[in-house]
Design a protein that fits this description.
alpha/beta, five-stranded parallel β-sheet, 14 helices, globular, binds 6-O-phosphono-alpha-D-glucopyranose, Glutamine--fructose-6-phosphate aminotransferase [isomerizing], repeat, glutamine amidotransferase, EC 2.6.1.16
Length: 362
């Protein structure tokens, strides 16, 4: 059938889409680059970002996790305040809005009903909206004032992979463009740093055997798994846990390293897998401290660190990238470990039970 042709030599769309990530990032660089090598976004979007006093990101699922990273990128690079909200909750727990809010809807499909509910309401109130999507022309794209295309190509597997990294890459460029418009100085070349990310992704997608072994070592016989991280690694841990639970049905949760002691550590038993991310120098000691705490209670600990911060017993070491962009590479082992865990458990990787690729009901 047609889907077999599209998959090519790959056994699953998810694996194909994981492998496409370096090319997606390079494609984004090309699409948003001026001839002089600077970042190019629509003037309208630049003006909307510049004119707003606070940005409200609205999203669901994996796109929400990209939004958490997107907030950090915009606040650190462009120095604009950002809030991130789960779409389905926003209208119930609506924050007091600033004077000139700009709403950013992040959606791979551009069709998620929970987001549309918020979009309709904020448009009714006269606010501006930007949709960051993989499908220009989708409902959320048409109904917003502006669209930023993530150029990831069609994503078929229900579990989102390349759309997530593409969303974060586009947020990097949005942050850089806004910084320039606001006269904020940058001490790095974003397009060059994204090119380094693409190369690092390629290195990682070539390390499948190693990551399959991590899946075997930690996830063959377990009913749960915890992901811990601090700072931006916390957000990647949330996405790692979502990937794993979606396709392998292992009960997986992501936690902030510092929150462990406030509850979760009670769940640690002999052999409980705990995957810890350590890509951020400023929290390296603290997250490794958390790993020791859970190891002392019997956890089967797996540290994924980054070149320059690695220690002898780390299970996996990521190639170094700019500290703001570590989520784009740190998520790849999460995706591949989840893929192999699901495969070893005979799960339907591309079409997990009870889930839909795009959820058009509230
Ligand atoms: C569904 C999918 C998820 C996705 C979420 C948001 O639940 O199964 O993978 O992250 O919707 O989708 P969107 O298209 O709005 O990014």
């Amino acid at each position: 059938d047609a889907s077999d042709i599209e998959k090519g030599t790959y056994p699953h769309f998810m694996l194909k889409e994981i492998d496409e990530q370096p090319f997606v990032i390079r494609n984004i660089i090309q699409k948003y680059q001026n001839e002089d090598g600077s970042v190019r976004l629509d003037d309208d979007i630049r003006e909307a970002m510049k004119g707003s006093d606070r940005i409200y990101i609205i999203a669901a699922g994996t796109s929400y996790h990209a939004g958490l990273v997107g907030k950090q990128l915009i606040e650190k690079i462009a120095q604009r305040p950002v809030e991130v909200h789960i779409a389905s909750e926003f209208l119930y727990n609506m924050p007091l809005l600033s004077e000139n809010p700009l709403f950013i809807f992040i959606s791979q499909s551009g069709e998620t009903a929970d987001l549309r509910g918020v979009l309709v309401e904020v448009k009714k109130r006269g606010h501006k909206a930007l949709t960051v999507t993989n499908v220009p022309g989708s409902t959320l794209s048409r109904e917003a004032d502006f669209t930023l295309h993530t150029y990831a190509g069609p994503e078929i597997a229900v579990a989102s992979t390349k759309a997530y990294t593409a969303q974060m890459a586009v947020f990097t460029l949005l942050a850089v463009d806004t910084a320039k418009a606001k006269g904020v100085n940058l001490d790095f070349d974003p397009l060059q740093e994204l090119a380094i990310v693409a190369n690092a992704m390629e290195t990682l997608t070539d390390q499948k055997e190693q990551l399959e072994q991590v899946a075997r070592d930690y996830l063959t016989i377990t009913r749960n798994c915890f992901f811990i991280g601090r700072a931006v690694d916390f957000y990647v841990g949330l996405e790692g846990a979502l990937k794993l639970k979606e396709i392998s049905y292992i009960q997986a949760e992501g936690f902030a390293g510092g929150e462990l002691k406030h509850g979760t550590i009670a769940l640690i038993e002999d052999g409980t897998p705990v995957i810890a991310l350590a890509t951020q120098k400023h929290v390296n000691l603290s997250i490794r401290g958390n790993v020791k705490e859970v190891a002392a209670r019997g956890a089967n600990t797996c540290i994924i660190s980054m070149e320059g911060m690695e220690e002898e017993d780390d299970a996996f070491v990521l190639p170094a990238v700019h500290e703001f962009l570590t989520p784009l590479v740190a998520v790849i082992p999460m995706q591949l470990i989840s893929y192999y865990a699901a495969l070893h458990r005979d799960c339907d990787v591309d079409k997990p039970r009870n889930l839909a690729k795009s959820v058009t009901v509230e």
